Amino acid sequence: MNNADKTPMPPLTLLYADAEIPDIKAFLAAVHTTAEHLGPPTHIICINADKVAGSLHVKTALAHACRAWFVDKNPVARSFEMEMLLWVAASRQTREAAAFGAQSGTMPLWVVVVGAEKSSEEEIACLPGITLHTSSPLSAEKIDASKRARLMQDFIVTKQELSIVGDERLPELVAERVALSAVYR
């Protein structure tokens, strides 16, 4: 992972929102239009917050996706948005990664904006079905028993491993799985 050319990283923004998405195709079209409106090369990635282990998980995936796409220039995906979802899922399979993105229905979202040269909050707040939070609420980091079980299954975290480090460190274990997925690339 050489950074010999010292390629600068693009501006990054991480937002949290509640979403009610009746039509995913229309929603994604609006996201694409908003990205274009913010100016090329802006990328907007909506991540289902119920599927991730909080902001540490998202930030770890974002760092790896940006390095693969902008610095090393060796991504797996053909779009930065899918590259980001692949890192979030710690996978090389687009079908698995797509499940971590926005879906039809009601859900909390982490909204990642990469490359926007101007403030993006107002534009994101105008997306259909989006209620943007001024800061991420405490619930964004909360992991209840069902979410813990899902994360353990999705990221192959064993009960023994979790018992050694403690339940509160599950986000760190998931972030570690994201980092380790680089080995499989």
Your description of this structure?
The chain has a single domain (12-184), classed as CGI121/TPRKB (PF0523-like, 2-Layer Sandwich). Helix content is 43%, strand content 16%. It has 8 helices and 4 strands. It has helices at residues 24-37, 55-71, 80-89, 94-98, 121-125, 145-154, 159-165, 170-180, and strands spanning 12-21, 43-48, 105-114, 130-132. The protein has a 4-stranded antiparallel beta sheet with strand order 2-3-1-4. Helix 2 (55-71) packs across helix 3 (80-89). It is globular, with a radius of gyration of 16 Å. The model has no long low-confidence stretch (mean pLDDT 94).
What's the number of domains? 1
Span from first to last CA? 12 Å
CATH H-level superfamily title: CGI121/TPRKB
CATH topology: PF0523-like
Number of helices: 8
Give the beta-strand count.
Answer: 4
From the spread of the alpha carbons, the general shape counts as: globular
The structural class is alpha+beta
Q: What Rg is obtained from the alpha carbons, in whole angstroms?
A: 16 Å
| Helix share, percent | 40-55%
Q: What is the top-level CATH class?
A: Alpha Beta
Order of secondary-structure elements: EHEHHHEHEHHH
Quaternary structure state of the chains depicted: single chain
**Widest β-sheet, arrangement of strands:** 2-3-1-4
Q: Which consecutive residue ranges, at least 5 long each, have pLDDT under 50?
A: none
Beta-strand percentage range:
15-25%
* Sheet with most strands: 4 strands, antiparallel
Reported CATH architecture: 2-Layer Sandwich
Instruction: Please tell me the overall pLDDT.
Output: 94
